[in-house]
Amino acid sequence: MSGEGNTIECRMMCAAGCAYGIEPSGTFTPPAPFTEGVGWDSTHPPVTVFGGENQGKNGLIDINACLVGKNQDGIIIAFRGTLPPAHTVASVLDWWQDIIDAEPKQEGSIPGKVHHGFWNAIQTLWDNIQWHVSAFEEWFPEDKLYLTGHSKGGPMASICAAQIHFDNSKMLQPDAVYTFASPHPGDADFVSGFPLASIPVTRFENYLDMVPQLPPTAEFIKAAEHVPLVGKLFAIADGWDYEPLGK
Question: Could you give phi then psi for residue 134, rounded to 5 degrees?
Fold first, then answer.
């Protein structure tokens, strides 16, 4: 692909891809062809927001990140997905545990329960997200707000949209959310309570991809219970009631 995407779905996908250009140091290296595909505004280029956990003398490990920028569609918050694991058994199992060992919890004023890890990731970015969105809103007062993300960035986009809607009425309200290969953001009560009428969510999934099936739904757990080893891994999520969000 060369040049700007022809549809909003393509442009949001490219924005989600651009978020992987945020390096652990917080610097942003625009990745081709995604940058061209978004069509970022040249006068106000996207800014990085990053945060994480304090890890001893190494300082801040910024595993959570997003871009806030503007294109022809409006203001965009694009969340970065999971950083690639090292090619070791231990790192893959650690990544797997992060996805599976994720009991949903009630957070803020959001209805239902959401993935606690993804919620915490958003909170490391929350104050700076609000600040940058407000700045773009001052420059472009007529623009709409969109949220997007790939992989881990998908549930972060969905949960963040809910947090804006239910916990911060003063912030520019989202117009839509677009997710790509998104894990499930929350339980059935969260999905039923999400304001889809005012904030539609469109999700793109490859039917052979495991990630959009996690954390597992009740149906998935039942289907996997007789598979050796895998059934036991999924059994810890029994009763969590995760569901996909959006169309």
Answer: -65, -40
Cα–Cα distance between 197 and 101 in angstroms, integer? Answer: 31
- pTM reported for the whole predicted model: 0.90
Please, are residues 176 and 218 in contact by the beta-carbon 8 Å criterion? no
Tokens of 52: 């994480």
Determine contact, residues 112/188, Cβ cutoff 8 Å: yes
* CA–CA gap between residue 36 and residue 30 (Å, rounded): 9
- Residue 149 CA to its chain's centroid (Å): 4
Which residue type does 93 have?
Answer: L
Residue 33, φ and ψ in degrees, nearest 5:
-90, 10
Q: 201 with 175: CB under 8 angstroms?
A: no
Whether 79 and 19 have beta carbons less than 8 Å apart is answered as: yes
* CA atoms within a 13 Å half-sphere pointing along the CA-CB vector of 199: 27
Closest CA to 213 of 177, 178, 183, 188: 183
Q: Residue 83: name the closest of 61, 54, 67, 101 by CA.
A: 61
Buried b (16+ CB within 10 A) or exposed e, 75-91: bbbbbbbeeeeeeeeee
| Per-run averaged pLDDT (10 residues), the chain, 247 residues | 87 97 84 94 94 54 88 97 61 52 87 92 94 96 97 95 89 96 95 97 93 88 82 82 95
